[in-house]
Amino acid sequence: MIKKIVLALMAVLMGVSVAAQTVPGGVTAKVVNRAGRVPVQGATVTLSRDGQVVSTVTSASDGSFTINSIPDGQYSMKVLAEGFAPAIVNVSVEGFVRDLIFVSLVAEQVISDIDDTSFAEFDMDDSGYSDNPAILYGANDPYNNIVSYGFSDIRFKNRGYNSETQDVLLAGIRLNDAITGYSPYSLWSGLNEAMRSKEVTNGLENHSVWAGGYNGVTNILGNPSSVRPGWRFSILSNSALYRLRLMANYASGMLDNGWSYAFNVSARLGGNDWVQGVYYRSFSYYAGAEKKFNDRNTLAFFTFAAPGERGAQNASTQEVYDLMEDNMYNSNWGYQKGKIRNARVRTTFEPVFVLKYKGKPTDNLDLNATLLYRTGMNGYSALDWYDSADPRPDYYRNLPSFFYDENADLGRLDTYKAAAAAERWRTDVNTSHVNWQHLYNVNYNSADGRSKYIQQSRRTDQNDLNLALSAKWRAKSWLTVDGGLNGRFNRTEFFETAHDLLGGDYFLNINNFAERDFAFSEARIQYDLDYWLDHGRQAEKVAKGGKYGYDYYANVRNASIWANGQLDLGSFKANLAGRIGVESFWREGLVRNGLFPGLDDNGNEYVIDDINLTTYDDNGDVVTSKGKSDISTFIVGSVKAGLEYDFTGGHRIYANAGFFLDAPKFNQAFLSPRTRNTLMNGLTNVKTVSADLNYQYSNNGYEIRATAFWTKIMDQSDLMSFYDDSYNSFTNFAMTGIDQRHAGFEVGFKIPMPFLEGLAVQGALSAGEYIYTSTPMMTETIDNSSETVVSDVPLTYWASHPVYQKDASGSYVTDAFGNYKVEKVQKHYVPSTPQIAANIALNYRTRSYWFFTLGANIFAESYLDMNPLYRTELAVVGPDDNLTNAVRNEHRLNWYMNETVINQGLSPVEIEYMAAQEKLYDKPLVLLNISIGKSWYINRKYNFGFSLEAKNLLNNRWVKTGGYEQTRLIDSESYTRYYRFDSKYFYMQGANYMLNLYYRF
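-> structure tokens emitted (1001 positions)
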């Protein structure tokens, strides 16, 4: 009997042992406050797999918890504790109880989120007012002469095109930025005299030094002999940009010995009347020499740069502007020892060197060769911090709306805290502006001299070598052929430095976002894993000026050959242009990020402390941060043609059409260029079809041009990077398949008045519809996740959204089947430019060199930049999303057929609220401007003059000139829907002036 009992007990024990061997895995750790590693008792730890909760436990008094008997696999662990921000940790169970050691929580009051604009492209305008012309220099054209400067106040984009579509050349070299494609106006800003001479075409028109695109070509000559001869000095003051500009210029013209010399220097200094913290401390220089050896050969060399720094303005929410009772509020600055200091300062020094040869072997053949080299630095400072309160004054947790909102579904009902926050904003300058002294004090009191706050500098340092060869062959009196080849070699380094330690001794080179999610693995939180391994597992202590965070090269290579034939048969003219080339780019990581280390030098996976750090993408390829990415190569090209007929009496009619195949830009190609080499899926050429029809009249002082245009741009890509609350991590949205359509007309005219000599009426009108026409795909990645792709979804509401019918009581109308009826489909517009812009002015010029202009600008139909997150079904449906794929597809099909079916959790209120695009101003904007000037000539040699311009005479300060939707979502109190964060805006300055005094001889 005893033997049977023993055998039975042994069988039971063996069964228990077998069961234990089946699911022996688990996870254990301590929940701690990241500040000081203090244990957190009572934290709720929830372990989930594939959206299903597996286990829930509570941390003990020492912060510890254990979850046992978990099958092998990948899990998501969410940790919640009162007073702390939620933490989500990715856990891999592999047959044993994994000890994560610590799970760190961050107190709510010290959450350090990334500013939405932190990683904006460097050539994007970051201020509310810009001196960058809407069209880079006006051509001798009544429309462009007005639009190029007169519409710049409102950030006007000609025909709705982005600035990178306009070809800007210097001495025959296409200078559009290799990384972004933007027109690099800042390279020669302030050198007006040296860069005045240019050759300009509009739209699809033919150009003799480049095949050109669909948004015009501007070729700045730049060589010394093209600069206006003589001396010129000028002093300028304006109240909108900078207090003072000083400029001096000299050009010799072509001397008898064949030499010509020129120089141009300027300085722009001070702030303005409207936005505090914004200032210029910028200098510009140009110097060149040119030698004409004979009638056949000329060689020129010139160099220029615009070194300096500029304090930037930041966009803010309407709540902040209302609190400050000032639409010119700038959150970037604060007082330091009684002086204003701006946290965001752009510092540049990018010298350009140009060598140009012109030859004429025969009377009917011209040759040109230009070599251009651009180098230097471009930095943009911002605050960075670790384990401390967000220092930005307009951070949303510092605002009254964080504590109270009339919408009860937001759960913000603390009127006392809201009133206290509002009072602080009204009375305490250290609340409404950056508290520099506090930042220094925190660092002074930090253990071991470690800076908790620093001012970083985000750098993009270029080395750009360009070569252009071209020829003009006058084959016949009626046939001219232009052609050439271009090549570019660009390497741009992207990195960040500890620009100012703000009183501390060093900044630790670790990823504080990864630290929260991967506290169990010290290796994963290293920005430079190699340094950590080579220095006894000690993170780098970064000194002032030292690099930290990301560091990588963007390499771009391109080459093209082009030709342009022009037929001139008197009244009839025609041209045909073509271009073909190849463009390549790749990323080269210079540091090994602990989140994506790739393989070691021997081709092995990185396994540190029994944790495999190496990850793979969906194709099975290793995801790496260091070394070279795959090389992306694209065949590019274009073909365009034009026909023209000139009638007697100054009438001209002409038409152009073209097809363009362009490569995506480097900054639009990678899922997360700061952290890894992974390219977007579906990356392809941008395809554009464009056409225009024009009428022009020029005779007896009358100047008129009218143009109708149509352009379709297809397969564009874009990248947005931001901090996503729903994942508590740095997130990237990579968009592909973006299509746009631009259609409209433009008119420019100048008509002399017969009753008064010198008086003319002039004006311009641009009216169009610039809309999105596709449903792009969006790939979401999270930097602090081992998953290479989190989601790959369509942007269902990117191009448009349905607007539903309502009855007289305001209730939504349904059909017999209970489906909500669609009243219309609302289009979404290309943002930040008015769809309608007009100017009308009186211009009076006398024979005694007085001039006077009184004009009005009218703008309408301008829309805010859209955030792709809000146009996904995830955001529209909200947390109660339980739609199946079949239901989603049915809904999407019916919506395309204008018969929307509303299913579980998806309501008209949510769709119209979340997907709608905001209009910047509801009524047309009217601006009045006036200018007056006079020139005096002495002995026909000396010239003195002045010009005075006053803009926005009606003092309109309610006009939003631009902005963006924040990339954040708010959970409703009922957990049934999401709400948007407030958008951020820039506003137009009020009445301002510009006074220019000049002296020439």
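Residues 22-110 form a domain with the Immunoglobulin-like fold (CATH 2.60.40.10).
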